[in-house]
Design goal:
Helix content: over 70%
Number of strands: 0
Number of helices: 6
Number of domains: 1
Order of helices and strands: HHHHHH
Length: 170
């Protein structure tokens, strides 16, 4: 009996530890996403970042037309404003799951758009033999968006589920 009680206690302890790590991880994932999107958004207000994204946007079949309407700096500041709004919306999860789901959905669209740059802007380093050698200027910059897309999808699902549960309970 003592042996099985000890085993059960150990199993419960492991589950509790796992649950704590999961809870901490979800907070780090959500608010890390908020930090990254917000920080990158604020960087869009600098000439350095505006010039950095210019070749990506100029080669994009989805966004290149914007430079016919706006200057490089105007587009960058507009995009930065959108990114900061997305970050704030995702960060509102504690107060509004609906706002967080909206921000997360917008982030999913944003990251799908930026990931499309991999196909429209040269990102393979030819001196390293091409695919899968990512260039530092484009490829390595964009590959992180796969993880950020995954985080955005997770925060969208989590906030959406919570909102649906609150609505069902009402």
């Amino acid at each position: 009996m003592k042996l099985s009680n000890a085993g059960e206690s150990s199993r419960r302890s492991s589950v509790n530890i796992g649950s704590r790590f999961e809870a901490i991880g979800s907070l780090v994932l959500r608010y890390g996403l908020v930090l990254v999107i917000g920080w990158i958004g604020l960087m869009k207000f600098t000439a350095y970042e505006a010039n950095g994204i210019q070749p990506l946007v100029a080669h994009s079949p989805f966004l290149s037309w914007m430079y016919g309407l706006l200057t490089v700096e105007q587009f960058s500041k507009g995009l930065g404003t959108v990114e900061v709004i997305i970050a704030v919306l995702i960060g509102l999860r504690h107060w509004s799951a609906k706002a967080s789901a909206l921000g997360s959905g917008l982030a999913v669209i944003m990251f799908l758009t930026t990931l499309s740059f991999v196909f429209s802007t040269p990102g393979w380093e030819p001196s390293l033999g091409g695919f899968p050698a990512l260039s530092g200027s484009v490829g390595q910059f964009l590959v992180k968006d796969v993880v950020l897309l995954g985080a955005s999808i997770w925060t969208l699902g989590e906030a959406w589920t919570h909102q649906a549960q609150v609505a069902a309970a009402s």
